[in-house]
Amino acid sequence: MIGAYVIPVNSAAKTGQTQNHVQPGSPAKNSLLSEELLIEFHSLLALQTDTYRNMTIQEFRENAVSELDTPQGRALLWEAALQDSIRFYRFTDENAFFLCNTLLPLTGGKWKTTTITSAGAERSLKGGLTAQLEFNATLKILNADILISEYEQIYRELHQVAQDFLSSQPEAALASAAASSTKKIEKKAEKELKKYAKTVSQAKNITLSIDKCMYGPEDSIPAYVKNVLTLKTDDYQNMKLTDFFEYVTMRYEADQSLWEAKNRLAHEDYDRLKNRLSEEDYNFLTVTLPCTERESTYPSDRVGNIPADFGGRYELPYPKLETLISFEWCVRYEPSDPDMTVGQRDRIILNVVHGMDAFVADTPKSTDISSTDYLKKMRSCLDRLILENSGRGLDMTVFQCMGPGSEF
Questions:
Q1: Confidence grade of residue 9 (pLDDT, cut at 50, 70, 90)
Q2: Is residue 12's pLDDT more than 70?
């Protein structure tokens, strides 16, 4: 999977990305799309150059049609149009955004009119519920001489209006599945979206109309995941590491179903879960709990007295060979402050993880990620993050930083 995992390296859990409103220039390496799709549609994504947003709609269309006017190119466009995941991530992943909102509409036969169906926004609610707002809209191009950046901004802002609307609503109203409540949400959402559409249309370059809004809360978190989340007490972040470990151990020993749920979680698809969980719940499952377990002092849990660890793994697209290149880093640590709390430890670990994620995310597309120099820079970044976050109760050392055929 493309991305990083915020869990101990030895865990079997998978990677995940946050489903936020996507910003222009987000790197392909952070894609929510599967590696198989990224490889399959590499030649389509190659049109997503550093400068394509500076083209006019007409210029981009002519260039894209020229590049893809082959049996293979047309077949790829057709296949991309059939992919549910591309439509699902059309507002939250830069690659899906480019394919679904820019390339596919502007290379079609009726390219001046686009029907946007089942687009939407989500908000995580308490109790495992997800507020889901979907809408249908129609976009018509009146002036093909505006820049692609202006054209795409309309899509981005349309999604942001929907997202902001959900954020502004009381959680109790969003959580209600009563027909009267969901209809009320739909009407209010449609009013906000139409207000934005009117603003777009007034510029007379593009007309935007909102055709329909649909709303409903969904219970999207598996029962066994909710079971594991019962370990997340109200004050767990203020508990000492040893106290929280003893609490977790006691709960496992007292409840076989909880133990089985925890083991099942190790094989969960975190790509799917992360878009359904709050940030705190996600961090609890991928940082707090696995790190707590790795800090066990029981002989059977610490084979060879190996310290606890955490790390990240990235699989980044390498267009030159139309493949993916894997990177992995691991940091071993020992708590040095007996009074350290769970929250203090987690913040230190997340500082390192987020710093490494930022390093990868900020890598220019022109970088040769297969080079030794890139891996050295990655290792230097990791060393710097360890130094910056040392001396706060965790003794951390870099165990490995690996790339294609090299380790530093």
A1: very low
A2: no
Beta bridge partners of 129: 219
What is the spatial distance between Cα 228 and Cα 213, in angstroms, rounded to a whole number? 35
The torsion of the CA quartet 362, 366, 372, 374, rounded to 10 degrees, works out to -10
Alpha-carbon gap, residue 400 to 382, rounded angstroms: 10
- Contact between 294 and 241 under an 8 Å Cβ cutoff? The reply is no
Q: What are phi and psi of 277, to 5 degrees?
A: -100, 155
pLDDT at 21 over 60: no
pLDDT score, position 30: 60
332: tokens are: 């071993």
The pTM of the full predicted model, rounded to 2 decimals, is 0.56
Gap between the Cα atoms of 158 and 141, Å rounded? 16
Alpha carbon 16 to chain centroid, angstroms: 6
Question: Using an 8 Å Cβ cutoff, are 122 and 19 in contact?
Answer: yes
Of 210, 185, 213, the C-alpha closest to 197 is 210
pLDDT tens by residue, 348-400? 999 999 999 999 988 888 888 989 999 999 999 999 999 999 888 999 999 99
- Asked if residues 189 and 229 have their Cβ atoms less than 8 Å apart, the reply is no
CA 294 – CA 303 distance, rounded (Å): 11
User: Do the Cβ atoms of 368 and 378 come closer than 8 Å?
Assistant: no
Q: With 0-12 CB in 10 A as exposed, 13-18 as middle and 19+ as buried, what is 169? A: middle
Rounded Cα distance, 234 and 287, in Å: 17
Two tokens at 152?
Answer: 């795409």
Residue at 88: amino acid letter:
F
Q: How does the average pLDDT of the chain come out, rounded?
A: 86
**Which helix (H) or strand (E) segment is 136 a member of?**
strand 129-141
SS3 298: coil
Three-class SS of residue 206? strand
